[in-house]
Amino acid sequence: MKKLLLTGVFKPFGVSDEYGEALCTMELLNNQVTREQGIHSPRSNNPSFGLYLMAENLEIPATVLDFPDWEDFTKEIRNGNYTHVGISFIVPNVLKVKRMAEYVRKHAPNAVIILGGHGAGIPGLEEIVDYDEVCRGEGVFWLRRYFGEDVDKPILHPVSPSAVRKYVYGAPIISDAGIIITGVGCQNTCRFCATTHKFEKQYTAFLSTGKEVFDACVKTGAALKVEDFALMDENFCKSPKRARELLVNMESHGKAYTFSTFSSAETIGKLGIDFLVRLGVKFLWIGVESKANVFEKTQGIDLHALIADLQNHGITVLASAILFMEHHDKQTIHEDIDWAISLESDLLQFMQFGPIPGTRLYKDYDAEGKLLKDIPWPKQHGQDEIWFNHPSFTLKETATYTRDAFIKKFQTHGPGVINMAHSYVKGYITVAREVAERQKRGMTWNAETLRYEETGNHAPDEFMKLRLEAMKRSALEFRPVFKAAELYAPNIAAAKKARMVAELYEATFGPPTLTERVQGLAVRGFAFVESIRAKDGDVMRQPGTIRHEWPDRHGAVPQATEENHWVRHREHKRPQTAAAASRE
Ligand code: SF4
């Protein structure tokens, strides 16, 4: 009987030791978006979604082990009787995988070791890790094929939250959301992009229709008691038919779900703001990359106007910019950093132009002899020093420029959470006004043209009423942080902005309720404790270990796992400093 373990790499994360680096924390926002924002930075870990999706869609019994510590992992190997052990990892974690594979060889010598994830593209991987099989692309179909199962069976979507161990200002107040993995890959073929190359420049849909996406939302929503979802897809709206069907399904069922997702700028323009608002998009990650407009996806688009329009309609924007591109020298890099900040996105990622194995950029730089091959893999994460020769910067300078870019954004626009709150309340005001105006003018939504059109029908837009309620809920989640944001603001302008946003909330939603006032006081208390801890260095908490088993499903009617295993995973109750985590 075959039995598969699917595991991520072991913790601690974000700790400098022989396997990893402090600047690689396994936290998306804190690591590379709200970096340098101290206690204002939202903290969370995203589960290894792919592992759950793969386990859900196999017939053989499978176990997922996410965020294990070394003891969890070794115990699982010793006691699990696994015939196959799959390890998913990114490039900087390859030395952890090496240690894990060595342990498997010793304690489960008959187990087949399968590697996958973005780290699987490392050239000469076999010289680092002792493994048997490698999946360099999409995993669900690869594993079905590998185990001789029916590749064409429908895809079942697992229930999973988008993040665990969530807090800001040290307070566990970030609300839950589900994750919906609609597809992987992107056809835009940007030269540096690991995703497009990993999936061979093709898009693979797991949920091809709007109905399938809606059903996955219903299932996850019921299990996790959420109405908010992250759509894991590089460019969800690039499949407009599916997005339109999703909206039709939500409208017919009276469900005004909200979504966070990724989109290229060109796609947003094609669908239009009215559609995005109606669909419930509340957070967009957009690759703006560089002022030099070197990528097709941003050419001819007024990004300043686009981002402002999104924010004015309640869609918070995370813009992503790239440092140390070929055209950057000591003057143009400052121009690009200033330009990226001038976009006034709520959040701003700075990522280094890193040649990641498997990408065209890596091949080009390898051929040109630009790669610095003696730089260890754990250092190749894009937030410290670059790992290639750049004619205008020393390695040390690249670390400093990167850090300083984040500091400049923080000093210029203040905490990201306040920017997001501002966009949510502005959006609520705008959309409420537009809904009222349209009713007055007798305008109704045309699902074909994706526009509001004058029809003489003055009936209220019932779905937009639900949408406004959902927008209000999204906005009010931020209310407890205002005072802490003001008290610990990085400068006077940021403190003023926190006050201004709090006043705008009061004018829009009325004075805070008793519950909101108590929550605000609690966040201030948490923030005080967090600020003391932060004085000793960054406060690094480790995610709890998540373990879930899928039974043998040979011959079973395909049925998604309904059990909400997310309430059962073991969490570390107390926050840990980086040093404590390292000792663990
Ligand atoms: S648009 Fe984004 S996901 Fe697509 S190839 Fe470019 S960087 Fe990658």
Secondary structure topology:
Elements: E1 4-7, H1 28-32, E2 43-45, H2 49-56, E3 62-66, H3 70-79, E4 84-88, H4 94-107, E5 112-116, H5 125-128, E6 133-134, H6 139-146, E7 164-167, E8 178-181, E9 183-184, H7 194-198, E10 204-205, H8 210-224, E11 228-232, H9 240-253, E12 258-262, H10 265-271, H11 273-279, E13 281-289, H12 303-312, E14 316-323, H13 332-342, E15 347-352, H14 360-367, H15 395-413, H16 416-441, E16 443-446, E17 451-454, H17 462-476, H18 482-487, H19 492-509, H20 514-535, E18 546-550, H21 578-583
Parallel strand pairs: 1-3, 1-4, 4-5, 5-6, 8-11, 11-12, 12-13, 13-14, 14-15
Antiparallel strand pairs: 2-7, 3-18, 9-10, 16-17
Helix pairs in contact: 3-4, 8-9, 16-17, 16-19
Bound molecules: iron/sulfur cluster (SF4).
How many domain units? 3
For the record, give the distance between the C-alpha atoms at the N and C termini, rounded to a whole number.
35 Å
Structural class: alpha/beta
CATH topology of the largest domain: pyruvate-formate lyase- activating enzyme
- Beta-strand segment tally: 18
Strand order, main sheet: write it out.
6-5-4-1-3-18
Question: What's the story with the biggest beta sheet?
Answer: 6 strands, mixed
The bound ligands are: iron/sulfur cluster
Rg measurement, Å: 24 Å
* Total of DSSP H or I helical runs spanning 4+ residues: 21
CATH superfamily membership of the largest domain:
tm_1862 like domain
Low-pLDDT stretches are 562-584
Bin the strand percentage: 5-15%
The helix content is 40-55%
CATH class of the largest domain: Alpha Beta
The global form is globular
CATH architectural designation of the largest domain: Alpha-Beta Horseshoe
